Amino acid sequence: MENKNIIGIIGLGYVGLPLASLARLKGFKVYGFDINASIIEKVNNNESHIEDKSLKTLLAKLKKENKKIEATDDFTKIKECDFVFICVPTPVKENHMPDLTPVKSASESIAKNMRRGQCIVLESTVYPGVTEEVMIPILEKFSNLKAGIDFDVAHCPERIDPGNKKWNVSNIPRVIGALTKDGLDKIAKVYSKIIDGEIIKLSSIKAAEAVKIIENSFRDINIAFVNELAMSFDKFGIDILEVIKGASTKPFAFMPHFPSCGVGGHCIPVDPYYLIQKAKDIGFEHKFLKLAREINNHMPDYTVKILENEMKKLKIRLRKANVGILGMTYKENIDDLRESPAFKIAHLLKKKGANVFVFEPHVKNIRGLEKEKVETLDEFLSKAQYIIVASPHKEFLQIPANKFKDAGIKIIIDGKNKLAREDFKKEGIVYRGIGHN
Ligand SMILES: NC(=O)c1ccc[n+]([C@@H]2O[C@H](COP(=O)([O-])OP(=O)(O)OC[C@H]3O[C@@H](n4cnc5c(N)ncnc54)[C@H](O)[C@@H]3O)[C@@H](O)[C@H]2O)c1
Fold first, then answer.
1. What is the DSSP string of 279-338?
2. What number does the ligand 1 atom closest to the CA of 126 have?
3. Is 156 a catalytic residue?
4. How far is the CA of 336 from the centre of ligand 1 (A)?
5. What angle do CA 155, 196, 18 make, to 5 degrees?
């Protein structure tokens, strides 16, 4: 059944493209706006520029039903839209300051083409205050319209977890805060036509903005806690995975988190800085969040140190040694390199004089490591003698330990504690995980 409202989605990435696909499948006419010509071309062909099974399924369904998202960089089409969802990136700069350039430019592009009666929803993750203090003033300035009177505004943070088989854009519950009660009801209603997940109405936009920031900070803090425990338990000779498994038997008040060679992605290592920096501006210091960031940022160094120590035991120096990094994405079985700790590991190894090789079958271009990139697993194994597994894609987990042994691999550092530890030990390869040896 076709829905009468027209929807515009600004930014066709990990967040915008699934939402646009789902809205189109639910019968809305959908414009997808982006500034990247190759993304526009792919989306217009019902193709995904992102390697994600559930997204590809959505696009295949669209193709089958002979439906398509109209992808464009022509923002005058905004005029036709009843609801506009902003899904542009919210990165941090080198100094960890929030970079709101995409939110500001998307807001300006919308504002120049707005009309009365529209609803503008920010889905990007931001600190409390961005929607009302940054976005609305731009929308009002360039449109000459008044928020809350001529148009409605809301924040509804996206919680998608790319690669998650159970939770997807359709079934994840959503929280919404809007400028007016009327706007809140209208926007909640349109979401309920697109997604199946529960829709929770909050009392303010700021509360909705804060929800997303605390969700991701909660993860960052808990991961930092287990990373700290992993480093401590390495000294105690206690296996952190066994301890987490034990603690998880408590039927309440414990939630397992796992240590690793670092935290990556566009969200967890980024979003806490949004709160840290904004709170600092208004006179509050988030000591806890800052410490969590510091601990998690240190994990690539710790991983390289583990390798260096094991090499020392074998009387080998890291300088001039051939070290391979297996998997460069921030987590396994996806194609997203953003903020991946594997890059920091590579740069640390290079700084220490190692010859570095990287193998990442899920991504074509490994920016900054073009010379280090190898094309096949066999080439990788023939070049590296010491390996750090930074992203254990499922195909890597299927490589038998004796293949590493035959290739002359002496040490393997399991950056996500996912390898079959005993198999490597049996082959006489030195195995070290993160708090798990
Ligand atoms: N990636 C995730 O898993 C995830 C999950 C939940 C929330 N988020 C949040 O959602 C937001 C979007 O993240 P993403 O991962 O989808 O980013 P992305 O980089 O995958 O996609 C963003 C898209 O926006 C486009 N774009 C940038 N500036 C634009 C502009 N001015 N006008 C039109 N298009 C523009 C880019 O070309 C790109 O295609 C961020 O705030 C992020 O924190 C991301």
1. HHHTT---HHHHHHHHHHHHHHHHHHHHHHHHHHHTT--STT-EEEEE--SSSTTS---T
2. 41
3. no
4. 12
5. 65
Q: Which two structure tokens, joined as six digits, stand for 63?
A: 């193709």
Residue nearest atom 2 of ligand 1, based on CA coordinates: 14
Q: How far is CA 57 from CA 3, 21, 196, in A?
A: 22, 10, 17
The CB of 414 under 6 Å from ligand 1? The reply is: no
Last residue of a domain, one of 176, 202, 228: 202
Whole-number pLDDT of residue 28: 97
Q: Is residue 170 part of a domain?
A: yes
Residue 303 Cβ inside 6 Å of ligand 1? The answer reads no
Cα–Cα distance between 15 and 89 in angstroms, integer? 9
Check pLDDT > 90 for residue 3: no
Is 336:162 a contact under the CB 8 Å cutoff? yes
Q: What pTM was estimated for this model as a whole?
A: 0.95
State if residue 43 touches ligand 1 by the CB under 6 angstroms criterion.
no
Residue 404 lies in a domain: yes
Q: Which residues partner with 322 through β-bridges?
A: 355
Q: Whose CA is nearest to atom 21 of ligand 1?
A: 13
Domain of residue 71: give its range.
Answer: 6-202
- Residue 1's pLDDT band, with cuts at 50, 70 and 90, is low
The CATH number linked to 167 is 3.40.50.720
Verify whether ligand 1 is closer than 6 Å to residue 13 (CB atom): yes
Which ligand 1 atom sits nearest the alpha carbon of residue 106?
Answer: 31
Each residue of 290-347: pLDDT tens digit?
999 999 999 999 999 999 999 999 999 999 999 999 999 999 999 999 999 999 999 9
